[in-house]
Structures are given as C-alpha cells and as structure tokens.
Amino acid sequence: MSCRDHAQEAATRTRAVVALAVVGVVLLRLPYLGRPAGADEAGFLIVGHAWHPGTSLYGPYWVDRPPLLIGLFQLAAATGGLLALRVLGLVAAALVVVLVAVAAQRLDGARAARWGAVVAAVLCVAPLVDAQEVDGELLAAPFVALGLAAVISARAAAVRGEARRSVGWAALAGGAAVGAVLVKQNLADVAVFGTTLLLVSVVRRELDVRPAARLLGAATLGAVVCLGFAASWTVAHGTDLGGVLQAMYTFRVHAGQVIAGEGCAYAAGRLRSLVLAGFASGLFVVCLLVARVVVRRRGDAVTWALAATLAWGLVSIAAGGGYWGHYLVQLVVPGALGVGHLVARGEWGARALGVGVLVACAPGWLSGLSAAPPWAGAGLGQAVAAAARQGDTIVTLYGHAEVDLASGLSSPYPYLWTLPVQTRD
Question: Alpha-carbon distance 247 to 182, whole Å?
Fold first, then answer.
C-alpha cells in the first residue's frame, strides 16, 4: 500500500471516529433535555429574557458575567426556553469535538485528531465534571477550540511563508479569543496559548520575528473588531460598558475577599470534590504529563503552549473560589488537545490516560441517566405558581433561581446568585 493510500485510509478512519464521537455526545446529552433547570441555567435564562434598558446591569437584574453569555441565554429564552438552552449546549459540545479534532489534525495528524476527539467527547458529557449542565464554561468552549485551531493554522502558514493565509487565521484567532472571554471572563486560553506559542517559536528560531509580529498584529486587529461589535451590541441593549467591566473583574476581587472572610468551611467540601473529580476525570493527570515533558526539556513550542494554557486553567479555577464542578470544563479543550499531542509524540502513559478517561467517566453517565436530578427547586416553584395571583412577584435569596423560573413570576430583587447578595447588598 502506498503512502497516499495510507493517508487516505487514516483520513477516512479519522472522519469515522470524529463522527461517532459527535453521535455519542448527542445521544448522551439527549436524556438531559427534559431535566429541570439548574440554578445557573435558570438564573441566566431569567436575566437573558429580561435584558433590556432597565434599572440594573442587565435590565432589572445584575450578574457578574459578560454580555455574550447573557446574549446566548437571551437567544435560548426567545426560542424555547430551557429546551432551547439544552439544545444549544448539545450543539456547543458537538462543536468542541469537531474543532478539537481539527486542531489536533493540523497539529499532529490523524492519530492525534482521533484521540483528541474521543477525549473531548467523553468529557463534554461527563457528570463527573458537571458538563451536563449548560453553563458559561461549556458555551465558551467552542470559541476556545476554534481559537486554538486558528492559532495552530496561523503558525503553520507563517512557517510555510504563506503570509496572507497566516494573517487571516491569526485574525480569526483574535476574534475567537474575545468571544471566549465575553462568554466567561476568565477563559483567556486562546490568548495564553497563542502568545506562548509565538514567543517560544521565536526564541527557538522556529519562526522569525517579523512574521511573528505580523501574526500578533492580525490577532489584535481581529480582537479589536470583535470587541467593537460586542460593545456596540451591549450598549444597544441599554447596558453600560463600565458596569460590565466592573462586574467582570472588579467585583470578582471584592467577591474573593467575601469568600475569604467566610473562612475555609465556605467551599472546603467542594474543593475536595473538585480535586477528586480533576484526577478521576484525567484532566489533572494531563496537566502533570504535559508538565513532565516541559520539565524534562523535551517539549516543542506547542507543548510549552499547552502547558501554559493548562497552568492558566488551574490558576483560574483556584482563583474562582467557589470550586464548583463545572469549573473543570475549562480544561477540556486544552486537555483533549494535550492527550492527542502526547499520543502523537509517543509519550509514556498518554494512551493509557485516554482510555482511563473513558473508563472513569462511564459510571457517571449511567448514574447520571438513572438518578433523580439534584435540583429540587422546580417543584417548589411550581407550587408557588399554583398559589400566585396576578401581579405577584417572588424573591429568593442565595442562589435559588430555579424556584423563580419554575414559578413564572418576576423578581423585584436584582441579585439571583449568592455572591452578589453577599458582596453588593
């Protein structure tokens, strides 16, 4: 069999594996379409539905999240509510699988693409990392995957001397980087990956300074253009840009002080669960394997970039303070790409890790499909709805927005989550 035949066979096998991975994601997320809303899902649906010029940051409500996330929930609220949101989450997970495969293919070839797609698919539906709930990390993940694929493509085109193509890919990477941050403000993964990759490539003389500067300029331009569109759209909804910046970053500093003031008991139990889930899912193990390659100075520029991105994810998760399980979804894209990269390099333990992720997450799928949903607020909200009269409103404190959503009543109180109550009220 010729080399060309081998390449065609590998490409066919890769397409089949990626397609099966996407089908698996769809099938495993379908049972969640009819589950009651989680607290975050309910809260963001309420905020998205009510977003118009009003008395607070997003209409009548205030939340420490960027506008594109609220816009996605606004879209879901306008097209079917919770069911539309769950479908949006399903599409996001499927896109992550495809885009991780594309990035891995362009980075290391067909074998890396297959491993990356399978690992991404497994983790995008894993109850072990709370991926079944549609939250900011899941909706930002396609932007991250697109951005990493664009960065890899831009660098490859620049190395080949294809200036125009490299600039186009770099501009797309900049736009994707902004998109990810505007969905979840701490997901600067694309910027971290791209900056590290360029710097290490220049230091190692894999890329000259001039094309590297050209890529950086194009990425910046793409980011600025996308940021301009997002800012105009946000202002058109009656939201102040200064208020958005305060909510995204300044508030988080104050909230961190509040969390620290609550003492270690505030989230100690969730921290233990988060650490266990991080190792059981294999995500923390990927971080260790990539770090091992870097420490032994055997890694190429991409390995360094992956190590920096995973390190940023770990710091970001720790800095969040709440230690909720869905924080781990931030590591899914660089983690899956890292597994594919390590397998392609023949690194020790990489294949075993990929299989281990599947084995570790399988029991969670089965228990998640058979167990009752953990959110009991829907029944309470329905009881309130049955007793409500015309003109009634509802107020819940400390993160019970699922009760508000199920009741169908509006809230005169602008804070639907715990931290805003503790920090701003």
Answer: 12
- The pLDDT of residue 70: 96
Cα(45)–Cα(392) distance, integer angstroms: 20
Burial of 11 (0-12, 13-18, 19+ CB in 10 A): middle
Positive or negative CA dihedral for 361, 366, 369, 373?
A: negative
Per-chain mean pLDDT for the chain:
88
pLDDT, position 419:
86
Are 48 and 237 in contact, with CB atoms under 8 Å apart? Answer: no
Query: CA 73, CA 84: separation in Å to the nearest integer?
Result: 9
Termini Cα distance of the chain: 71
Q: What is the pLDDT of residues 210-242, one digit of tens each?
A: 999 999 999 999 999 999 999 999 999 999 999
Determine the angle formed by the axes of helices 332-345 and 189-203, rounding to 10 degrees.
30
Q: What is the mean pLDDT of residues 335-352?
A: 84
What does the angle CA 340 – CA 143 – CA 66 come to, to the nearest 5 degrees?
A: 140
- How big is the chain, counted in residues? 425
What pTM was estimated for this model as a whole?
Answer: 0.93
* Residue 156 to residues 151, 243, 341, Cα–Cα distance (Å): 9, 40, 16
Structure tokens belonging to residue 231: 């800012």
